[in-house]
Design a protein that fits this description.
The structure is a single chain. With about 475 residues, the chain is α+β, with helices and mostly antiparallel strands. Helices cover about 45% and strands about 10% of the residues. It has 14 helices and ten strands. The strands form three sheets. A six-stranded mixed beta sheet has the order 3-10-9-7-8-6. A two-stranded antiparallel ribbon has the order 1-2. The chain is elongated. The chain starts with 13 loop residues before the first helix and ends in a 10-residue tail after the last helix.
Length: about 475
């Protein structure tokens, strides 16, 4: 065997090693930025970038693993790649071997995570995210360079001795740089870790976070319109009649919604009625007669949902919410408060978000329909949530006018109530988010806020039953 000296010692390309270090540092920094944002911190660039919506990605169910943000795991993984690249090529055989072993462990993790998350975005399961793409591009490039460096070092030292597996603490020095140790257990561990990421996200989706009223300070009540005028209008509309502009007499025309398939039971609405419902330990009072509502304002239990028609998680929760309501029928009603994230009407949004384009006008349309034809709000609500992308305002407006009197709807849209209501909802959301970003959708149930999307209808129903006296109708489960 040839002596292993300076003449034939394998030299790992320093250019490749420095490239790995630079890519790992960049990926770790961007992962840290996303981790900071996932905790509700501020940061320019997450409102929207070139067609990508970073905020939507952070609110996605795929942004966490077993309750922990995946961005935190990204910071750890890429910091590990950086450390490994700093150890590789050292004169100490133990240090050099440790660097290669660490790279051997992290390379399949980085590649596996990149394949998994890119597949989720490509199939539409997860929203596209420019920052995520940048992280995975750096990860794939760094992993590829690590493989190239390992193969090159192994070829150059085909006749050299294997790196001794000596603990770093002994500080023993090798005569020169040694070849990478053969692949083994670390490779299998990295593959297993990448598989655990995908399996864990599929099998154990994030759970809803519970915010107790005791942690909130302030008054979160929503201002209601004068009860006489509002109650008279809503009662007339509920009975199929509504006053025209400048007139308080019932219209003898076609009842609103007469061409819709009749429901099993129409929501009960008393004439000239108001009702105060206390939530969050009395810190919030709301009149279900005054706001967009799913169900009857006379239901025993009233839940408030803060949502956004441009929110992917809100779309996924829509069917679960309907299935849960069907279990309890008239026992429960849901006040729907749209919180648009479009820069046109939300002063807290600093940059235009492409996926939110048009959501301000659609939210105002939903409020206007609830104002002039409360019984028909649910139909429009399902239409707005029932598509992969937001429908154009013109299409949604035409859909609403199939059942709602067009003149009254136009008058409502020209008035100030829809815009004022939407601003109320935005400011309520802002106050509730004072101690950190509140994820949408969120539900105010009794004295608690259930933040985020439930993974199943059973999880949602269990959360409701733990806080309200609910009994499934007909033993439904």
């Amino acid at each position: 065997m040839k002596p292993y000296g300076k003449a034939n010692a394998p030299q790992t390309s320093q250019a490749i090693v420095w490239a790995i270090r630079a890519l790992a540092l960049l990926a770790a920094a961007v992962s840290g930025f996303l981790f900071f944002r996932s905790g509700g911190g501020g940061g320019a660039g997450c409102d929207g970038l070139g067609g990508f919506d970073c905020g939507a990605a952070l609110d996605s169910r795929w942004s966490a693993w077993m309750g922990a943000p995946v961005s935190m795991a990204g910071v750890v993984a890429y910091a590990g790649v950086l450390m490994a690249a700093l150890l590789v090529g050292r004169r100490s055989g133990a240090v050099d071997a440790t660097g290669w072993r660490l790279l051997e462990l992290l390379t399949p993790i980085v590649l596996g995570a990149a394949v998994w998350f890119l597949a989720l975005q490509a199939t539409g399961a997860a929203p596209p995210c420019a920052f995520c793409l940048a992280i995975h591009a750096c990860g794939v490039a760094a992993a590829a360079l690590a493989i190239v460096a390992r193969r090159a070092a192994s070829r150059r030292s085909a006749n050299g001795p294997a790196a001794p597996l000596v603990p770093i603490g002994e500080g023993r020095r090798a005569p020169s740089r040694l070849p990478p140790p053969p692949l083994g257990v670390p490779t299998l561990g990295g593959i297993a870790a990448a598989a655990a990421l995908a399996v864990g996200q599929v099998m154990f989706p994030p759970q809803m976070n519970v915010i107790d009223a005791a942690s909130l300070s302030g008054d979160f009540s929503l201002e209601a319109d004068p009860p006489a005028a509002a109650g008279r209008t809503l009662a007339m509309v509920a009975s199929g009649n509504a006053p025209s502009a400048g007139d308080t007499k019932p219209d003898a025309g076609r009842p609103l919604g007469s061409d819709i398939q009749p429901q099993a039971s129409r929501p009960t609405r008393r004439r000239d009625a108001t009702r105060q419902v206390a939530l969050l330990g009395g810190k919030m009072k709301i009149d279900p007669y005054q706001f967009p509502l799913l169900g009857s304002p006379e239901a025993e239990h009233v839940i408030v949902e803060l949502m956004n028609y441009a929110c992917g998680s809100c779309r996924r929760v829509g069917p679960l919410l309907e299935e849960a309501r069907d279990r309890y029928r008239d026992q429960i009603a849901v006040v729907v408060l749209p919180v648009p994230n479009e820069i046109l009407c939300n002063r807290h949004v600093k940059r235009a978000i492409p996926s939110a384009r048009g959501v301000c006008k659609l939210s105002e349309l939903a409020v206007a329909v609830a104002e002039v034809a409360p019984a028909d709000f649910e139909r429009l609500h399902h239409f707005l949530l029932g598509r992969k992308h937001l429908p154009p305002f013109t299409r949604a407006n035409l859909f609403a006018r199939e059942t709602v009197d067009g003149e009254r709807l136009s008058n409502a849209l020209r008035g100030d109530t829809p815009k004022r209501r939407v601003q109320q909802f935005i400011e309520l959301y802002t106050r509730l988010s004072a101690k950190g970003g509140l994820k949408l959708p969120s539900q105010i149930v009794g004295d608690d806020i259930l933040e985020g999307a439930p993974s199943s209808v059973d999880e949602l129903c269990m959360a409701w039953e733990a806080r309200l006296e609910l009994t499934p109708v007909g033993g439904a489960r």
